[in-house]
């Protein structure tokens, strides 16, 4: 099989009829388009998400904390706790494990979450370190926001610049190659993008603004996130390529590796849909977060407007990070 996440057909084939006993406390289950599960405990709801880091070497602890806490934030909820699993090959040194845990600890402090458990194992089953986290959050007042809430006519907003994570990974893992198209200052800036990958602040803002849906942009880039939103909500989208917020550095790196930035992993950007975009944009601006309207939710299908023409697009089969040669 190809490297990367299973596509939706493959994923549905595996999970559709393999959910165990149905529980009435489970209000939302993880699935295509829904990265979080929601469990009702009466006085509060627990929001849960889990993901591994497999495509990066540098900053693995930072990425593991943030991609999972970002999922929790996409429900408009503050992350509370983290369970961490580390699988490492026999060649690992104890200091390396300590360094990863220190990185996990520091990132957890930043987002206000506690590391409450996990598992660490040395195994020949892996040839590089794998870090997987499960994040927990608690919702008391408002209903958690789901990916499936997008409605026809909503504006589509993305925060910050796209491809922050993908650019940081490519420049960190392939610095020599990137130095052909980036100067020293640009390389330093690109590596610093990893410090911008949290979307917890904008997720909490979105929750207070009652956006219709949110989805953090991870594997498959903005196109992958858009397809997950419209698949979950039974709608479609139309976006404009010229409106996509991309830094000059990201454009240079994507050109060098011949990858599509709209399909490149983009932790650090939150996708929001709302029928009141100016309120959301104003709240984001007040918090020092850039927001950009890139299109609208429509009845069905996926379309990109490019140079005046509409092009129909399909869901990305795999993140561009896995196509690097």
List keywords for this structure.
325 residues, alpha+beta, 60s Ribosomal Protein L30, Chain: A, Phosphoribosyl-aminoimidazole Synthetase, Chain A, domain 2, 2 domains, seven-stranded mixed β-sheet, six-stranded mixed β-sheet, 10 helices, 13 strands
How would you portray this structure in words?
- It is a single chain.
- With 325 residues, the chain is of the alpha+beta class.
- The protein has two domains: 8-139, PurM-like, N-terminal domain (60s Ribosomal Protein L30, Chain: A), CATH 3.30.1330; 147-323, Alpha-Beta Complex (Phosphoribosyl-aminoimidazole Synthetase, Chain A, domain 2), CATH 3.90.650.10.
- The chain has ten helices and 13 strands.
- The chain has helices spanning 8-15, 60-73, 94-111, 164-173, 175-178, 184-192, 200-209, 221-233, 248-257, 277-286, and strands spanning 26-28, 37-40, 45-53, 79-88, 114-122, 130-139, 155-159, 213-216, 236-240, 270-274, 291-298, 302-306, 309-312.
- Strand 4, helix 3 and strand 5 (114-122) form a beta-alpha-beta unit.
- The longest helix has 18 residues, at 94-111.
How do the helices and strands line up, and which of them pair or pack?
Blueprint: H1 8-15, E1 26-28, E2 37-40, E3 45-53, H2 60-73, E4 79-88, H3 94-111, E5 114-122, E6 130-139, E7 155-159, H4 164-173, H5 175-178, H6 184-192, H7 200-209, E8 213-216, H8 221-233, E9 236-240, H9 248-257, E10 270-274, H10 277-286, E11 291-298, E12 302-306, E13 309-312
Parallel strand pairs: 4-5, 9-12
Antiparallel strand pairs: 1-2, 2-3, 3-6, 4-6, 7-10, 7-11, 8-10, 9-11, 12-13
Helix pairs in contact: 2-3, 2-7, 4-6, 4-9, 7-10
């Amino acid at each position: 099989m190809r490297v990367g996440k299973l596509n939706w057909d493959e994923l549905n084939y595996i999970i559709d009829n393999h959910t165990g006993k149905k529980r009435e406390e489970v209000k939302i289950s993880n699935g295509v388009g829904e990265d979080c599960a929601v469990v009702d405990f009466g006085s509060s709801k627990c929001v849960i998400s889990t993901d591994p880091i497999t495509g990066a070497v540098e900053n693995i602890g930072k990425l593991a904390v943030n991609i999972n806490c970002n999922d929790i934030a996409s429900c408009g909820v503050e992350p509370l706790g983290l369970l961490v699993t580390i699988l490492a090959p026999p060649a690992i040194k104890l200091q390396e494990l300590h360094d990863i845990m220190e990185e996990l600890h520091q990132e957890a402090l930043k987002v206000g979450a506690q590391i409450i458990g996990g598992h660490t194992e040395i195994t020949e089953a892996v040839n590089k370190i794998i870090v997987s986290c499960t994040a927990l959050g608690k919702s008391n007042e408002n209903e958690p926001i789901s990916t499936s809430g997008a409605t026809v006519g909503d504006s589509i907003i993305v925060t910050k610049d796209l491809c922050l994570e993908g650019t940081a990974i490519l420049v960190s893992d392939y610095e020599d190659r990137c130095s052909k198209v980036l100067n020293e200052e640009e390389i330093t800036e690109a590596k610093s993008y990893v410090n911008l990958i949290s979307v917890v602040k904008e997720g909490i803002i979105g929750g207070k603004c009652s956006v219709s849906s949110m989805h953090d942009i991870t594997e498959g880039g903005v196109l992958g996130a858009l397809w997950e939103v419209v698949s979950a909500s039974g709608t479609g989208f139309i976006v404009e390529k010229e409106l996509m917020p991309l830094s000059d550095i990201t454009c240079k790196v994507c050109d060098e590796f011949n990858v599509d930035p709209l399909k490149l992993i983009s932790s650090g950007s939150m996708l929001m849909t709302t029928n009141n975009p100016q309120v959301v944009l104003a709240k984001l601006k007040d918090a020092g977060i850039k927001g950009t309207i890139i299109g609208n939710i429509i009845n069905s299908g996926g379309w990109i407007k490019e140079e005046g023409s509409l092009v129909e697009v399909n869901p990305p089969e795999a993140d561009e990070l896995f196509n690097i040669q």
